[in-house]
Specification:
By secondary structure, the protein is α/β, with parallel strands linked by helices. It is built from 8 helices and 8 strands, in the order αβαβαββαβαβαβαβα. Helix 4 runs parallel beside helix 5. The model has no long low-confidence stretch (mean pLDDT about 95).
């Protein structure tokens, strides 16, 4: 596990350097979905701090068994009726994709006296099977996030169409970066657009070249999920 994390960190550093960026500008988010508690503990002992889960129920079972200093991200689709379970579990939510969900998550965190860091999930490819808002809706959702207490906008997230070729994802990563730049040009503050969460085990180096600040790595750290 330690060698896997070190290897991924070295690849992140190389990709960042090749793009003229600082390695420290890229967060390694370990996707621990389906992984048992001992495997996550092993990664934590190797120095990994940020972990991502896809499903609320699985996270509710695992997180209380793990060290309190780990930082948890919800990267899977979130239904409004499950938002009530997020405070106390997740510091970050990567899958805000509507005004109504933004308001519900904000309300739930506000009621608990907590603040959630939020990313707007954008369906830049237009795939019908993908969650995420349309690019044209992003500005409105970010504006709501800035207005609501209990939630802080941190940027954008996307998932490109799956492809064996990492280069196939480049246009979609570039599209998210260009959307971020367009929103900044429209006057949205940089504080709401700090992060681009994009890139997984098969294509994270391409994502970094296109501006990713958070890469979501599962297989390269934990191995195949079978």
């Amino acid at each position: 596990m330690r060698s896997n994390i070190k290897n991924v960190a070295q690849r992140i550093a190389a990709a960042a350097a090749g793009a003229g960026r600082r390695p420290d500008d890229v967060m390694l988010l370990a996707i621990s979905k389906t992984m048992p508690v001992p495997r996550i503990e092993e990664a934590a002992l190797a120095g990994q701090v940020h972990f991502g889960e896809n499903r609320i129920q699985e996270a509710r079972e695992k997180i209380p068994q793990l060290p309190e200093d780990l930082i948890w991200h919800l990267v899977g689709h979130l239904q409004s009726n499950k938002a009530k379970y997020c405070p106390g579990l997740f510091s970050w939510i990567h899958s805000i994709d509507s005004v109504s969900l933004a308001r519900e998550v904000a309300r739930r965190y506000r009621d608990k006296g907590e603040v959630c860091k939020a990313l707007v999930q954008v369906n830049v490819s237009g795939e019908e099977v993908k969650h995420g808002c349309e690019p044209g809706e992003t500005g409105e959702i970010l504006t709501i996030l800035m207005e609501e207490e209990g939630i802080e906008p941190e940027g954008l997230m996307t998932m490109p169409p799956w492809d064996l070729d990492p280069e196939a994802a480049r246009p979609w990563f570039r599209a998210l970066r260009e959307l971020r730049d367009e929103l900044a040009g429209q006057g949205l503050p940089g504080s709401a657009l700090k992060h681009l969460s994009m890139g997984m085990t098969g294509d994270f180096e391409v994502a970094i070249e296109e501006g990713a600040t958070i890469v979501r790595i599962g297989t390269a750290i934990f191995g195949s999920r079978g």
